[in-house]
Design brief:
The protein is α/β, with parallel strands linked by helices. The protein contains four helices and five strands; from the N terminus they run ββαβαβαβα. It has a five-stranded mixed sheet with strand order 1-2-3-4-5.
């Protein structure tokens, strides 16, 4: 079985939005890292990562998310993740992985794009 990994970019108001689908693992995580760096290099420091269609995430994927948080913080920007808490098979795996590792609290998590872009962008706290 071939699994497709895909990252598509867009904008929603002041927010850059990257929609990620497929598996976020050792093979695919460098691609997401590059997309995040490209967005920041363009001067966009308010970023939403839509992970609702990611159905698998390993430690390298978690590492990319933590590195993205660190990068956005260094720019005094905002990072928000879209992770459906329940009801969706896609995305729920990432939510469980971040929770099990105790790092979910590091992220500003939203259930959908509308809520992620609704509030004003503010800098990430420590």
């Amino acid at each position: 079985m071939v699994v497709t990994f895909k990252v598509t970019g867009g904008e929603r108001g002041d927010w850059a939005v990257l929609q990620v689908s497929g598996e976020l693992d050792l093979v695919t995580s460098p691609g997401l890292r590059q997309h995040i760096h490209d967005v920041v290099a363009e001067g966009r420091h308010s970023l939403v990562l839509d992970l609702s269609e990611v159905f698998f995430c390993d430690s390298s994927g978690v590492g990319v998310l933590i590195a993205a948080r660190r990068l956005i913080r260094s720019c005094q920007g905002s990072l928000r993740l879209i992770l459906p808490a329940q009801g969706a098979v896609e995305g729920s795996h990432v939510n469980r992985v971040l929770g099990a590792l105790g790092v979910r609290r590091l992220f500003d998590v939203h259930p959908d794009l509308a809520s992620a872009v609704k509030a004003e962008a503010g800098p990430l706290s420590a």
